[in-house]
Ammonium transporter (Robiginitalea biformata), 1206 residues
Amino acid sequence: MMVCTALVFFMHTGFAFLEIGLTRQKNTINILFKNIFIITVGLLMYYIGGFNLMYPGEFNGFLGFAGFGLETDAAGLTPEYADGGYTYWTDFLFQGMFAATAATIVSGAVAERIKIGPFMVFTIIYVGLVYPIVGSWQWGGGFLSTLGGDDAGFYDFAGSTLVHSVGGWGALIAIWLLGSRIGKFDEDGKPKAIPGHNNPLATAGVLVLWLGWFGFNGGSVLSGDPALTSLVLTTTSLAAAAGGVSAFLVSTLAYKNYDLTMFLNGILGGLVGITAGADLMSPNEAVVIGLIAGAIIVGGVALIDRIRLDDPVGAVTVHLICGIWGTLAVGIFGDKAGMDQFLYQLTGVGAAGVFCIVTAAIIILALKKTVGIRVSREEELEGLDIHEHGMDAYSDFRLNQH
Amino acid sequence: MMVCTALVFFMHTGFAFLEIGLTRQKNTINILFKNIFIITVGLLMYYIGGFNLMYPGEFNGFLGFAGFGLETDAAGLTPEYADGGYTYWTDFLFQGMFAATAATIVSGAVAERIKIGPFMVFTIIYVGLVYPIVGSWQWGGGFLSTLGGDDAGFYDFAGSTLVHSVGGWGALIAIWLLGSRIGKFDEDGKPKAIPGHNNPLATAGVLVLWLGWFGFNGGSVLSGDPALTSLVLTTTSLAAAAGGVSAFLVSTLAYKNYDLTMFLNGILGGLVGITAGADLMSPNEAVVIGLIAGAIIVGGVALIDRIRLDDPVGAVTVHLICGIWGTLAVGIFGDKAGMDQFLYQLTGVGAAGVFCIVTAAIIILALKKTVGIRVSREEELEGLDIHEHGMDAYSDFRLNQH
Amino acid sequence: MMVCTALVFFMHTGFAFLEIGLTRQKNTINILFKNIFIITVGLLMYYIGGFNLMYPGEFNGFLGFAGFGLETDAAGLTPEYADGGYTYWTDFLFQGMFAATAATIVSGAVAERIKIGPFMVFTIIYVGLVYPIVGSWQWGGGFLSTLGGDDAGFYDFAGSTLVHSVGGWGALIAIWLLGSRIGKFDEDGKPKAIPGHNNPLATAGVLVLWLGWFGFNGGSVLSGDPALTSLVLTTTSLAAAAGGVSAFLVSTLAYKNYDLTMFLNGILGGLVGITAGADLMSPNEAVVIGLIAGAIIVGGVALIDRIRLDDPVGAVTVHLICGIWGTLAVGIFGDKAGMDQFLYQLTGVGAAGVFCIVTAAIIILALKKTVGIRVSREEELEGLDIHEHGMDAYSDFRLNQH
């Protein structure tokens, strides 16, 4: 569990690499700053209140709070806390590393045009309140976990819905309210590709994320049970591989081009897709879930373009659409498949969706109406780095010195 | 074992960094694409058939196959599978991460001039068939493992021969049939250095590979035995350090220059060299093996140049020559040293060599005669990225914006 | 412990990224070379003599030596070695990874102007002799560990003083004797910012260091005790987050600018600050220690500039000043707080300081008076890469190819 916590922490490096790799150089510092802000403030927010909002103990199933800060009563801190599986501190830290992920997903989608101040406010509220409340509905023992009575209900192993779609809904609302980057759509609304500035870092980012998913899904077994943990790692990796290959094949057929970013997003799609049921699937089922997720990636990216939304890193497709797919897949494949389960899954997707859409819209609209959420045209064209941070990402970079 | 699997997976990030760092910018996307292809397709091929080809159970010692896909019978999946050491799933995933390595080694050697389609075909066959068949001869309980009767035979702890030389032989045949990059040799056959475009990433790649070797060798203990595992990590790290220092000293003496890439390749040479006997050596022996490997690196790189082969990343020297050195070293140093063992080692090196040379030559020649394996002169000069992938690695990169 | 060793090893990647990211492109190869040298030679020096100098067994409390090389008597190598916690090999390798850290800290401070030969000599002596001698005073059971009798004394959990301040004192002396980079101070002594060339790598470096600290502090528990280890990971991460946020807030208030490098150094300051007492603090105390460390970072960087010292990466502030702060904090907060303990802490800080200042000054002055320690003006202006290594870090880098 502690090793997994370290791996999930390392995912933030992956997110940062991916995000700056796929965006323009002039906004690199800004994106790095946002990511560092999310990691540090996200963890502190989770410490101050998020953890006890997500795991409130006995509560009404919708909203509960166990108080500020962490326990310091030594008695509760040993592994007996979780029947020998892990300690209270591990629990907090592992979950805290997850919490920041939701805001990071939004960060990628709104890159290159959002004002940093309002984004910080959004992050604090979304990580500090929205994410843990949704989480409490299932992982905290809330109403989603008992939809079908004491023994049945919504199932989301490691967060296709509770982490990825929560971030994805926030991203969708944010890019809708924020508008597209200057130059993304021409006068007729035709999308134009805005290439990123550092594909090696983007590729490294995806590999780091895959590595981190070993911790994300492996640690979500919440015990060292080697049979189940190793099955989870196997289904996770096979879904990732299948997602990548599928997106590669579909995009090559569709666009006659070996597109690296589709391959990469396909891997991420496969990972998000398997996350809800990584412990329920056979290897064959994991491959099928990945293959479908990869195809969804290619279609989803085209769809987002079609509806004139601007998502520089494909966050909505990867985290929201594949998150929904993975959640529903639990009702279609694997040990829990069945119509009842499918309906529980649909309910969970819907409940999280409605809550996230409403809260994200309220937060962002409030910010938009007051301080504004978008940088000036001049700042967007010249880059956020120099305007908000007074520095370039590679200011000393020179060519062919000798 | 599961942590080690994660570390071995992470080695692919190291390989990707090393390979793009030491090559030219215009082929970066192509190399990243190949690496991502290898990881994903390699894992799927190993899932479909490779694992059961490598571990066929009872077989004739040369070729056996236990069927497609993985077991799903729950009874066999617990740690009892391996006397408590690890589970069936862990076994598959750990070995699957190794499998892709062989193709990655070839990828570096043929970089900057091979057609991507034929390379994909080669990868599928080499990872899917050649690697697991050679592996079955030893790790699957085949004829190499019983050369000296039931209790003695070839020894290759973590794959100096079975992984590194298998990749190395493929690389040697491939660069011989493929020819050198335009500009590598002048009219008199004198080699010219073609510097890479990103030495920081190359350095990071070597450090990530060293980290990954903690999993590669540490996990090959195939149990959590702390005494042996920690000895293996110690010999591995000491050989890496000695290999680096040795290559640095020899190359500084030979060329009057503090050559970073020699230092880096020396570390890799030390790592490959210790891999066959990491569990048999004392720390002093590990240092000696590393020191010799480092010297081999400097000599090997000069030799490859001398015979007019073009290996942009030094893959043949690192993986093949040091792989052979490490395999033979098991007969010279450590717990198994002796003339009989030396001959077993030589037999293993020879058997793997002949099989890899023949199969690699057949695959590559068949591809060469049919679809061709080399890109056009125009494509090579302008870069594979724009021709095969329609994008630049750093397309938005700008200098001194403000 | 072994996983932690791997993570501590990985910190060297973090240091390398941070250091090259914050310095100029023309010295990148030089910095990478120095870092690779430190890792490999540091480990070998620790193997040859450092380990037995640091853990001499029974000794006079000031200086002892248990002989060259490592034990190879199998009996002593099992986990019984440390009451079941870890093996002799793990002990060596984990401590060996620490040893190199001290020299890496110096490396960052003297970057861009030190001659590589003398730096290598300094590294060999400092890692091989100075670091292990100071370490033996506490971790080897020396006089600092028994300042207050058998049961009380100086306390430094994972090395705020024994690792970080040892490196920090060396860095301080080195930059004082070496002088500032050309252009760092104008004629009136006013400091000028010399921006680094690769902020994404610098950011990645800090995240990798944070990850590595999971091993640095987590492994320093020296057993798998889950309750204490998980508490240590929690205090470590909370202090890092608090340090970053504090430095961000203070620097934003002071300079009206969202400064990424202050945020990053704040995280490092928090990590160094918690290192001495990570196992003694409650989460709240960890946050307070981090908040103060973050503020110290902003003030310390300004102070170093004010006294006209040139520390390109802020090593003295991060490792020395925050190292002292963290050490003293053990006497102020947590389970050992009290005036006696505070005086023990002060004594440890002072003893390490005096010894490091004297030895570093002797080594560096001797080098300065003989071979010289500073590159020529021409070399500094044109870059160390081309002069000492004959290569550029990104020699093939091109813009907008198509």
In short: Residues 2-389 of chain B form a domain with the Ammonium transporter fold fold (CATH 1.10.3430.10).
